[in-house]
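Two folds, back to back.
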Amino acid sequence: MRVQLVDPSAFTPPYDRALAAALARGGAEVELVTTKFLYGPVPEADGYEVDERFYKRSASRGLSSSARLPFKGAEHLRDMLAFRRAPSDADVVHYQWLTLPGIDRRILPPTRPRVMTAHYILEPNASARAARSAAKVFGAMDAVIAHSEHSAKRLRDEVGLPAERVRVIPHGAFDYLTGLPEEKPLPEELQGAEGPVVLSFGLLRPYKGLENLLEAFTEVKGAELWIVGNPRMSIEPLHEAAALTGAKVRFVTRFVEDAEIPAIFRAADVVALPYLDAEHSGVLYTALAFGKPMVVSAVGGFPEVADAGAARLVPPGDTTALAAALRDLIEDPSAREELAAAARAAAAGPYSWDEAARLTLTLYEELLAGETGAAPDRAAGRP
């Protein structure tokens, strides 16, 4: 079976490349069609081909070029039309993202079946217009993959996709990070920890619930809190809140490259994801890969990971419950090890890339045999 995975803007290269490698191990001939990723190294191609055909001129200008994004905009339509016209022997085309979904859905190559992974569905309380737009994009596909039952329900109920077009295939744990050819030591800011470490990792954004985590930490004793990630919000209020906790709070507020991640996660005793809203999170799948106990909010697909025994679940925004869950784990090493064992089992089982590939290949085979769903019609958004 010949498969094209398509992520024109390289929005999720770790996911793209992990899935491509797993599909190749499962017996598929895989080509990843994307652009050059400019933010750091990516996993080497393992058993699959990579065609970085999109946005070559803008990518060549590098991140520091002020004209990179205008160049990318100018290249987009040309590159999408060239992709549509290019000869392809793929049996299945699997889209991870579309850069401009409303436009791109109209000019996709005619190869069927088409599959799309719903990494993002709709913002909370989305308007009817946004739901209609999503319906047109996802409706242009023969099948849509959701990473959780929660996301699948949103695709059915909010977007309006027929149930037979939606398939749940969990996101794999990012285990490639556990075996990097080169790792960097723990950042200087984080060395010399005193007591158990609670880690908050990833881009610093308002929906991550960092203020709630800091408030909860006023009730947590005998542990350090590490907040690590590139800011996408003002961090001054976080520093002010940290000063009120009475605890040791360390910040690393910059881009963290892959080579730094293993040392940070291995040093953590608990990973906290007190998100106020989310569908899923790359941080969660990184914590699974490193077998780390987690405290997570009951948002998106997080409860399904907690159901696997790999995390403690708390209501979003409930700082009292969050503090209690953190205290329990900090004070009870055996409880932490129980969660860690469940996380390792989940990463090796239902959240493994080989399992994701097996389910994905089964979906491809059913589509090729005409056993799943139906070809999208014009009302569902066919180009």
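---
second:
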Amino acid sequence: MDNKTNEPYPMRINKYLALKKISTRRGSDELIKNKKVFINDKLAVLGDKVKETDKVEVKGAKQKEYKYFAYYKPIGSETDSPRENLFPLGRLDKASHGLLILTNDGRITDQLLNPKYSHEKEYLVKTKEKLRSNFKQKMEAGVNIEGYLTKPCKVKIINENAFRVILTEGKKHQIRRMCSALFQEVADLKRERIMNIKLGNLKSGDTREIKGDELTLFLKSVHLTN
């Protein structure tokens, strides 16, 4: 196994296996407990550290089959998964609807949800009042929400009561709070896209499997392969 990473050596074996996308740190600990991991042909134990020159092998471990689904969360439902053994990546508040990604791949969670990564999410928003003339300019520049200045975003005005917005962060109730700070109240909020995954023609409450070129591009964007 190639030991080159951008992280400093020596490093704990579970961190090394996680960086190599073999498993999560917790999953790596299980592989070690089950005597599947070897360092320089010697059985690894929990807490072992790996040097850059070490040879690391994982033997006899069955490759987990990872699954990814697009799910249209309905209005009024909690953020949970309608499919057994899958979990949602991120959240949508109860009053919002639209795209969630469901998976059993714990490797992807940090890459998708950590704010240091700038992955696009696109929303269609309808407001109760007419949008003010300077709404787009102020929204795109960043909005102060209770002491936090949001990152610049992209806004496209659809009509006097609707706009699309593309964010690269996900603070709690962020769009609703941004609108409120600009004296607009959200009437409807729908997430239509996460990175290259689009809601498309999916109906409320339904799921579809993410596969093929769509999946390849998605995993490449979070530095993984299936």
